[in-house]
Structures are given as C-alpha cells and as structure tokens.
C-alpha cells in the first residue's frame, strides 16, 4: 500500500518536473499505475475528451490541431459544447501535465496524451458497443 503511494508520488513529481522519460519508465515498471492515471472524476472526463478530440483531429489533419478544430470535434463527436475560454484554460492545464504540446499554431498529443486518448476512445467505444448489443436484444 505505502509502496504504491510512493510510486504515485514519484510519477506525479516526474510529470510536474517535465521528466516524461522518467514518468514513462515508472509507468512501464508499474502497469497498474495506468488505472491511477485514468481515474474517472468530472475534471478528468473533460481532459480525456480534449485528448480524444485532439487525437481524432490530429489523425484527420495529419498535424497540429487548431483550437477551433478541437472545439468542433468536442461538439460533434462528444456532444460537448464548450466555450473557447474554458477550452483554452484546460489546454494550458493539459500542456502543464505534458499530455499535449503547442506546436505550429495547434496542439499535438504527447506519448502520455496519446495513451489517455486511446484508452478513453476505446472505453467509450466498448460502452457504445454494449449499448447497441442490449438494444438489439
């Protein structure tokens, strides 16, 4: 129990200091840590949706995603009509956590941001699939 708490603190500290290599190493050595990263609270859902939107649009645009495209994807794909000012604030937080990078007038996912994006999109895809199966019964 105490060992896990220390590992979580080390991981958070590595991210806060911008040491993504160290954070990746800790994550690879402790796969259970992914569950800690993905805990579902309301603030994290917004972060996950933004990472998901950036990931989707990054694939479509083959490069950095402008903020207006992030807003569009959030509204169309996640039914989340978010004010631009709120999105800008969340993007700053995501950048501080090293989940995204601001490049060439747009945003791209880091390795950790890509992992969050993939896990979130897979989770909502499974949930949708289960709903469709239940509806067909």
Structural notes for this entry:
- By secondary structure, the protein is mainly α.
- It folds into 2 domains: 1-37; 39-135, Winged helix-like DNA-binding domain superfamily/Winged helix DNA-binding domain (Arc Repressor Mutant, subunit A, Orthogonal Bundle), CATH 1.10.10.10.
- It contains 7 helices and 2 strands; from the N terminus they run H-H-H-H-H-H-E-E-H.
- Strand 1 (100-103) and strand 2 (106-109) form a beta hairpin.
- The N and C termini lie far apart (43 Å).
Key traits:
single chain, 137 residues, mainly alpha, Arc Repressor Mutant, subunit A, two-stranded antiparallel sheet, 2 strands, 6% strand
The total count of strands amounts to 2
Number of helices: 7
The fourth-level CATH homologous superfamily of the largest domain is Winged helix-like DNA-binding domain superfamily/Winged helix DNA-binding domain
Largest beta-sheet details: 2 strands, antiparallel
User: On the 0-100 scale, what is the average pLDDT?
Assistant: 84
> CATH architecture of the largest domain, please?
Orthogonal Bundle
* Radius of gyration from CA coordinates: 16 Å
Identify the overall geometry: globular
Number of domains: 2
Kindly state the percentage of residues in helix. Answer: over 70%
**Class by alpha and beta content:** mainly alpha
> Which strand-content bin applies to the residues?
5-15%
Task: List SSEs in N-to-C order.
Answer: HHHHHHEEH
The parts where pLDDT drops under 50 for at least 5 residues are none
> What is the first-to-last residue Cα distance?
43 Å
CATH class of the largest domain: Mainly Alpha
């Amino acid at each position: 129990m105490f060992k896990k708490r220390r590992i979580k603190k080390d991981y958070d500290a590595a991210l806060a200091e911008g040491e993504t290599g160290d954070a990746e190493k800790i994550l690879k050595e402790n796969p259970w840590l992914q569950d800690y990263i993905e805990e579902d609270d309301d603030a994290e859902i917004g972060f996950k949706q933004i990472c998901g939107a950036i990931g989707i649009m990054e694939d479509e645009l083959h490069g950095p995603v402008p903020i207006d495209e992030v807003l569009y994807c959030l509204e169309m794909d996640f039914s989340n009509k978010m004010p631009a000012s709120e999105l800008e604030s969340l993007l700053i937080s995501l950048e501080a956590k090293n989940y995204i990078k601001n490049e060439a007038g747009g945003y791209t996912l880091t390795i950790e941001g890509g992992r969050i994006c993939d896990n979130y999109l897979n989770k909502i895809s499974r949930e949708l699939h289960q709903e469709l199966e239940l509806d067909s019964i």
